[in-house]
Protein: Phosphoenolpyruvate-protein phosphotransferase
Amino acid sequence: MQVPPKDQTTIDDQSPSDRRVITGLGASGGIVIGRAFVMDRQYVDVSRTRIDAAAIPTETERLHKGVSESIEQLKRLKSQSANVGGAASEELGFLLDAYVHMLTQSRLVRGAEELIQTRHMNAVHAVSEVIDAIATQFSGIDDRYIAARASDIREVGLRLMRCLIGETDRAFETAPKGAILIAEEVSPADMARLQPGQITAFVTALGGAEGHTAIMARSLGIPAILGAADIIRGVSGGDLIIVDGGRGEVILRPTEDDLAHYSQRREDWRAARAKLASLRDVPSATRDGVEIDLHANIELPIELSAALENGATGIGLLRSEFMFMNKDYLPDEDEQYAELADIVTRMNGKPVTIRTLDIGGEKLAVSLQAEIGSGPNPALGLRGIRLSLRKPELLEAQMAAILRASLHGPIRVLIPMVVSVHEMSRARQIYEAVARRLRKEGHAIPDVLPPLGAMIEIPAAALAIDALARESDFFAIGTNDLTQYTLAIDRTDDQVAGLYDPLHPSVLRLIRDVIKSSRDRDIPISVCGEMAGDPRYTPLFLGFGLRNLSMSPVSLLPVKQRLRRLDTRNTEHQAARVMEQWDSARIAMMLDDFNDLA
Structure:
């Protein structure tokens, strides 16, 4: 399919009644007018290898697992479709129910089972053969309804095949430069494959505004709308559409008035960003002269330029998962060293905090997935330091690469998902042992090892901050997971993502107490979650005594603009008033009132 170039934003032949607005969750701000690229899900690479008789039970189980995963995807889509409302929601719900039925002891599944057992086909090949057989049979029947059912069977079968090979919607690599991506779902691993300028915006049927995909979209400055369930049937490839990432709106087949209105809003947005750019080299200090360190969170190396362009004085969180995503092997020490050394060198003496591997939950590495699996509850499973201590060779290789890279500039090492002092003690033992090994092998590393710190993102760690201080050189508060675990809300679950509330009093109390305890012990502390990049929360953090914030590169200048208008004495008074409250809505209102006046 050929999509018209990005600048062709004139209206094709259509009637005003074709116009339609689809809403979702605004995950990353910005306005884009362009042509839709709908994910091509109609092709799956089928391996036709014959399996041994002994492998039949395993392959049959694999088929059933794929069926379960497909059904779970469809149920999530149906749950999300409830947000569409009205007849559209009901119609989409019926369709998705039909799809689930097709996967429940249907001819499709039974036929695939038979081919695995009698003809020793692998599961993907078996499903492919059954789809073709059904489609051939239905093609000879002159009936629109039957033809539609054949199309449905093919769609369901292709979904099952994609689950069986672990393939998600990654065909966007074929999208023309400047396209607007329309997909059922985009994973963090998919985001890591994006090339600069390839996709100008994306809209998905699934996902929440606080999930990792949304975080990466904000970090890359790509306007995004997630959870727009009706998008899967509302837009065709090549359609002219408007995406308003801030409001969470997609305008399909816009009118001339729409184009004029949103073109002006887009220009206003760009003008505001240009005005912010003038703040790049001015001090990040409050009105009463208190200096605040503003660092950047980095997901991918391509974000480094944006961090420097927006005036970051360091990298407060370098997520090392990018080195493991989309690879079917584990990168060794030398490969990791080369990647990290390049980033540290490009920072030209500015500090870099490198977080060790936090694969798990929604961030999966192909090279580790077969071994650790997804677990019944990935957010509570084998991830972060738990995985690193289970497989110490992973941690040893990372620490060795980090220590070698530390010769190129100042580095700190951050351990994720810490719960206990024992985990930090064990991490430090491995750290020091790796340093001794490197020196013995003749590698040059600093005499004084870079600081080793703990990420505070689990309530247990926040409550035991005094004990963790014994083994930690610094702390970094991860507000995303801290909020999620405190409230027992999966921020990526479409059904409850709207309940995710960082202003819940319990979350704020944990953050305040960790900051106070760290300052009392003279231990450096920063906040590196999404809250740090929201200017709305800046007065609260300053009032708590925080002096280091780390955020997405695109958030650096808005936060700097906000803090330069603040006086820390006023923020301390306001923070004390806020912490007397027990109602999130009241806290939000007080914070907004203060921001309006300050």
Summary: The first helix runs from residue 56 to 81.
